[in-house]
User: Fold this.
Amino acid sequence: MASTTALSKPKKPRLSRLARIEALWGYVYISPWIVGFVLLTLGPMLASLYLSFTNYEIPFTPKWTGLANYIRAIAQDELVPKAVGNTLYYVGLSVPLGLTASLLLAMLLDRKLPGRAVLRTVFYLPSIVPTVASTLLFVFLFNPDLGLINRWIYDVFGVRGPGWFKDMTWVKPTFVILALWGAGGATMIIFLAGLQNVPQELYEAAEVDGAGRLAKFICITLPMLSPTIFFNLITGIIGAFHIFTSAYVATGSDGGPMYASYFYVLHLFLNAFRYWKTGYAAALAWLLFLFVLVLTLIQFRFSKRWVYYESAAMAES
Amino acid sequence: MTARDQLIAAREMAAGARSRKRRRRIGVFGVFATLLTVGLAVLFFFPLFWALSSALKRPTELYVIPPIWWPASPQWQNFVEVGKVVPFYTYFKNTFVITILGMIGGVGSASLVGYGFSAFRFPGRNILFIIVLSTMILPGEVTLIPTFLIFNRLGWVNTFKPLIVPNYLGGGAFSIFLFRQFFSSIPKDLNDAAKIDGCSSFRFYWRILIPLSMPVVITLCILYFQFLWNDLMGPLIYLSSMEKYTISQGLLFMRTYFTGTVSRVGQPMDHLLMAGSVVAMLPVLIIFLALQRYFIKGVIMTGLKG
Assistant:
């Protein structure tokens, strides 16, 4: 019957037999994603939304408690402001410094330079080292008493170096240094690609007008690079908010000296998989998602003021 | 010589002087920039060098003053020793199994799904593809807990399955997107010609599309390898018994274990910790050095989506 519908009811736009076979095959090919989306994305999303409104401590059954988890996270849990403060501090320091360092490295490599490929490789290498290994290496180098860095500080300046990962004021800057070691990675490569897309004629025209190096950087490089900066800023902020592995390795699950490196995702992880406060952890996860989403949307709104898209400008003129 | 010729000559001379002046200025700045670049390169490379040098030291050579830059007799057996103290090479093998199987699943299923979205017309195709793209902004934490509950119910906790199997279900939005874009750039005539010759759609995918898209396949393989090899949170959540640990977990375990041992034996174990770290770095570094071109390409592709 199905095969005759196309002929007997020509007014209804039904798919022909061939088109139906094609559609069927299309569904077959995308079926892994459909299964994955339903079982591992949509289902868990709805489930975690539901759980975030319940008191659920494995292995007991969830009990509906309304907004209690959210109220607790925002107003009652003393560790949340601590974790949020630490995370914002880390994001606020590591993202601008990281972007600046990556851009500087990219500009240094965007010149005729002997052995440029080798140098690019050297800058890139630290960013692909497994985080656990790079963190252990930094813990070793920045050991307050025996590490090479403090040894060197003592030899050169004659003073005792700071406690780095073991000092509550230094621990977050030390994580920033660790992040900066990876500044030659993906972010730099994206900047480098962006720099190579800046039309050379613009620089030549500016030179004819007598522009200096700084003027060229501010008036040509930065505006032409602004979409790239914007992209790296968004991904950088999202990435920095999720700092977990290095903190877990360097200062452990207790959050470092006086909770000074107790970051948000660590708080979430411990609640979910150490204290088994599953419902509360789900609420923490949704709060993180909403916060980062709103922050990203705000940045998109502000981006119209400073991001210059050449194609858009050309369309307007 | 007319006045006009003189003017031109003067202008050329001035231009010449300007360009010479510019060249000299670039010279000074250039030397400074080159020195800075090389200096920074040494700074960036040093920790890696120090990891290897420390991995080859005797415990007594670790913290002497002045520091030993390179041990007189490198202790290569430290790399064997680290496997005796903890089952480090079992961790290596575990990570390898998870990484390779996950990578095959991710790239394989993403390419099939990408093919489905690019070569077939079916109702709801565009809406479904928008859903694919929108999952990119969803962070892992939101789905983490219920996903754990599912795998717990299935009895998969403390097996490698939760770390491997999800990769086989679409392999992530970004990979699907990349494959779809690449497949769409291949002329449709090729597909039509193959169809006329009686080539099945899977055969076309496997014998023609995949060989044509090797750059994308390799790039994504690298990205998967890097991600799965370096992951810590996944194994922390799902693997609890020691013999199932991955290399990241193993290193973490070694660190806490050695802290106890140092106080017991009274001698530092950091040379073994560094040996372990070097072993953990090695596969990614080797792949990077061998396939650098694809690494860079992959990064630029991730940048393009923005």
Summary: Chain B has two domains: 3-55, 78-304. Chain B has a mean pLDDT of 87.
